[in-house]
Amino acid sequence: MTLMERRHLLYNSHSCQLFLYREEIRKLVPHLAMALQIPTWLDTFHVQKVLRKFQNNESTEISGISITSAAAKGDNYASEIYRVAVDLQRLQEDRKIQEKIPLIVKMALQHGILKEMIADVGFFETELSMISVVLPRIKKILAALTTAQIAPYCLYTQYEEPVHIFMEDLVCKGFRMAVRQKGMDLNHSLLAMQSLALFHASSVALRGKYGAARCVKTSLTLEFSLILIIGRLGL
Fold this sequence. Notes:
The protein is α+β, with helices and mostly antiparallel strands. It has helices at residues 3-28, 44-55, 113-121, 123-142, 186-210, 212-233, and strands at residues 61-69, 79-92, 95-108, 154-158, 164-168. Helix content is 49%, strand content 20%. Helix 1 runs antiparallel to helix 3 (113-121) and helix 5 (186-210) runs antiparallel to helix 6.
């Protein structure tokens, strides 16, 4: 079996798994509505530790923090997403700087049958790898072609329990999620397809840069991510 045949087989296998799990999840969604419960570990101490490491500055101190749900009921069922607004101060060249940092924290489900179903396919680990490893490489490759921001920057990832990721909150830059029931207009649909084309072409460039042996999995990850993105956009 050739490399392309193996990739096609795995691609179709992922598509089939995604469809089957999506149908099972849809059956469970009506029973998932519940009040927001902020995990105990998502506190000032942990957020401050993440920011100190990201900024490489031990003087960073949080003076205020607000944590709310980042998704309306029914909009997200494969993870838990929180919007974290942080007020902090830090020293920079002997000057005290105050700033506000908007963050998104996305956490894998902690219990229940959905946690087991999603863990079996590896959705969340794929997403963490995509955001923290693949997208920064793509950004470097595309730097000569476009200045557009293709994704939020990643501050922190944790693959051990509780599995989660800290990302930039793009809402503060004017981005917003499309209303899936309404879809998108022509201009936004064309923009989405152009972005998907950049992602797909970048996987080929990554393979050329890092070698076939190291990038087969990366390329497949990109292609599987396209399935998820297209499904999310309703295209």
